[in-house]
Amino acid sequence: MNLKENKNLIIISVVIIIIILSGISLGILYSLLPGHNQPGNKQDCEVAGGKWSVEENFCLLSYKESGEICTDGGQCKSGVCFPPTLTEEQKIILIDDPLKNIEGTCYPDELVTGCVKQIIMGTVSKETMCLNN
After folding, report:
1. 120 vs 108: CA distance, rounded Å
2. Which among 7, 26, 3, 5 is positioned nearest to 15, based on CA atoms?
3. Which end of the chain is more exposed for a tag (fewer CB within 10 A), N or C?
4. Which ranges of 32-105 would DSSP assign to H, the alpha helix?
């Protein structure tokens, strides 16, 4: 092999390694999404809107339809829990701190495009409301 062929082989090897590592990284990130991590105790289960089964020591979550009450997008078929209209007081608090213990409604699948305001684990923050910092 000449020098040019060696360089090409090295470049191809590096690209293949990057693709493999990217796939592994994306798999790990995907496994960390809330829908793949059932709450492990009664309190977390209830916060997520599920029912704790004492007999099975397991959280029973169901995927809710559009318009149903939720505290996290993982409870909704669309994956988005839309917050209620915020009061002026809540908007002022939101400038510096997230709002906790918020309930919203499941957002319709067909409207999920771009940045959609949402509740994540019962919390609304500037980031989840698509607001600039």
Report:
1. 16
2. 7
3. C
4. 42-47, 88-96
CA distance 42 to 122: 15
| Residue 14 tokens, joined | 């590096």
Answer yes or no: is pLDDT of 2 > 50. Answer: yes
| pLDDT tens-digit series, residues 22-78 | 888 887 776 666 555 667 788 888 777 677 878 777 776 667 888 899 998 888 888
Q: Tokens standing for 54?
A: 């004492």
112, 130 Cβ separation under 8 angstroms: no
Q: Which pair of tokens denotes residue 129?
A: 């409301």
Residue 108 lies in a domain: no
> Is 112 part of a structural domain of the chain?
no
Rounded Cα distance, 42 and 58, in Å: 8
Which pLDDT score, from 0 to 100, does residue 103 have?
A: 93
Tell me which residue range forms the domain holding 7.
Answer: 1-32
- Which residues are paired to 60 by β-bridges? 51
Radius of gyration of the chain (CA): 21
Q: Is residue 73 situated within a structural domain?
A: no
Q: How far, in Å, CA of 48 to CA of 70, rounded?
A: 8
